[in-house]
Amino acid sequence: MKRPRPPTWLERQRYLLDFTLSSLGRRKGKNLALAALYTLVVFALASVLLYTQALRSEAMRILEGAPDLVVQRVVAGRHDLIPGDRVERLSKIRGVQEARGRLWGYYYDASARANLTFLVPDRFWGKPGEVVIGEGVARTRLAVPGEPFPVLAADGEVVVLKVRETIPSFSELVSSDLVLLSEPDFRRLFGIPPGLFTDIALTVPNGKEVSTVAAKIRGQMPDTRPITRAEITRTYEAILDWRSGLVVLVLAAALLSFGIVAWDKASGLSADERREIGVLKAIGWDTSEVLAMKVWEGAVISLSAFLAGLLLAYFHVFVTPAPLLAPVLKGWSTIYPEFRLTPVLNPFIVSTLFLLTVVPYTVATVVPAWRAATTDPDEVMRS
Amino acid sequence: MRKSDRFLLFLALMLALLEVARLHALHRGRDRAEEVLAMTAMARRLGLTDLSLFTDARYARHPSQADRFAPFQDHPTSLEHFPSGSLVPPPAP
Predict the structure, then answer these.
(1) B75: pLDDT confidence band, cut at 50, 70 and 90?
(2) Which residue among B22, B24, B46 places its CB closest to the CB of A119?
(3) Chain A partners of B55 at a C-beta cutoff of 8 Å?
(4) Is pLDDT at A248 greater than 60 in this prediction?
(5) A221 in a domain, yes or no?
(6) What is the mean pLDDT of residues A334-355?
(7) Left, alpha or beta for A34 (phi > 0: left; psi -120 to 50: alpha)?
(8) A264 and A166, same domain (yes or no)
(9) CB A72 to CB B89 under 8 A?
């Protein structure tokens, strides 16, 4: 009689996988609950990672347009208005192409209970008495183009401006709370006399000269604080790291409890599982086959949870407006920017998540199985 | 159908969905690129230094321009008023 051909490596793995799935099916409720919890943990971690990565990369790209250098005047440790003659002095510093005084400030809108940012563009395209408002301001004040926009001036008088247009909504990330207006209107509203500015923005075409120019400014005008674009982007990196770090910290409790559940499930073999290993060894399975079966068991649960969690997180962050995460990362303001981020899904994020979630679980399942698989089957079944 | 076939099919489906997500990211990235460029241009034209993310306090609205000792800037040992302040660190010196 011809002996049957021994199965190939691939066929053996398929048989092992079949057996593993049946074995998992025998403890369906427990394993499904574990997979659901695992998916939730991957979902939460992936959501934070995807959201902050996307926000960071978008912020960095937008802030490339920020001024090369902003010069503030500091009086008694506080930001103060800067005299206009400094504009000319600053523009004479070698390396500076252009210096221009900026006018901007905050206005607390008591009716909407919101802080608005009033800003005078370099070349305001509206007429005096008109304002161009961000989408967030329009939403909060229910303002539409052509309607009046009353503002309480510094002298207590109500100045009625007119909404010229709203800033396109795709730019809410930078413009949500902006109110653009002409220079005379700004000075009238805030009582700022001519010749004074909020700060001065400098254009320094050669990026390598920015820090030298900043040092010169500090030397020539000791009462000023120059802020470079690199410092602005660093601030944002720090904020986003800080915020995502805090969310992860909150999640840490959930992660820890999952870790305990997973470790307990994976490392402490139940009596049933130990008996199963004993029986398998008694009927002729060798240690490597038992281990392969356990690796498959870990891989089935962790791979499924990893892929499901990652996909759910992608959907949550980039298809819906991230309802679970956005309030924490965006802040607690009345004017809330509504924006969609450029999705980021690169191998770095996927592999980081994989290493953080799948590898530890799979390893945790193998170690105790190896211990049980290397002992005598009789002893395993009796213990 | 064998159980392993069903599981491998499930895995293949998940990987296909991941590929759809990657393509979606590429597609949306291309769509959004113009908008991001427009926002960069707007930042350049208006001289914007900060994102309009947290508008609840002035040091949260323009963290890059805030005083060094923000958020405790109203008076020494003043209490923090806004939850954002506990999340936005003071600007690095």
Answers:
(1) very low
(2) B46
(3) 114-117, 136, 176-177, 331, 333-335
(4) yes
(5) no
(6) 84
(7) alpha
(8) no
(9) no
Q: Taking the CB of residue A169, how many other CB atoms lie within 10 A of it?
A: 16
Mean pLDDT, chain A, rounded, equals 86
Does residue B42 share a domain with residue B21? yes
Domain range for B22: 1-48
Q: Using the structure block, give the residue that is written with the tokens 């971690």.
A: A45
Based on the fold, state whether residues B36 and B73 are members of the same structural domain: no
Give residues 9 to 48 of B whose Cβ lies within 8 Å of A: 10-11, 14-15, 17-18, 21-22, 24-25, 28-29, 32-33, 35-36, 38-48
Distance from CA of B11 to the nearest CA of A (A): 7
Compute the C-alpha angle A81/A205/A87, nearest 5°.
Answer: 25
- List the structure tokens of A133: 């408002």
Mean pLDDT to the nearest integer, A115-135: 93
Strands A69-75, A78-80: pairing kind: antiparallel
* Residue A259 in tokens: 């870790």
Partner residue facing B51 (CB), from A173, A314, A345 = A173
Complex ipTM, two decimals? 0.79
Q: Per the CB < 8 Å rule, is B40 touching A117?
A: no
Question: Nearest-CA neighbor of B66 among A216, A134, A199?
Answer: A199
Mutate to test the interface with B, among A16, A21, A63, A180 (most CBs of B within 10 A): A63
* Angle between helix A271-282 and helix A287-314 axes, rounded to 10 deg: 130
**pLDDT higher than 80, residue B69:** no
B10-30 pLDDT, tens digit per residue, is: 999 999 999 999 999 999 999
Name the token pair of A174. Answer: 């930078």
pLDDT on residue B74: 46
Q: How far apart are CA A180 and CA A157, in angstroms?
A: 20
For residue A2, is pLDDT > 60?
A: yes
pLDDT of residue B73: 45
Residue matched to tokens 């025998």: A26
Place of tokens 């690169």: A346
Same domain, B58 and B91: yes
B70 touches chain A (CB under 8 A): no
Nearest to A331 by CA among B43, B45, B87, B7: B87
Residue A207 is given by DSSP the state G
Name the range with the highest mean pLDDT among A47-56, A244-253, A368-377, B23-32. B23-32
Question: Which tokens hold the place of A377?
Answer: 């089957």
**What's the token pair of residue A357?**
């979630």
Least confident of A122-136, A203-217, A284-298, A329-343: A329-343
- A104: domain range? 69-203
Higher per-residue confidence, B69 vs A376: A376
Eight-class DSSP state of A156: S
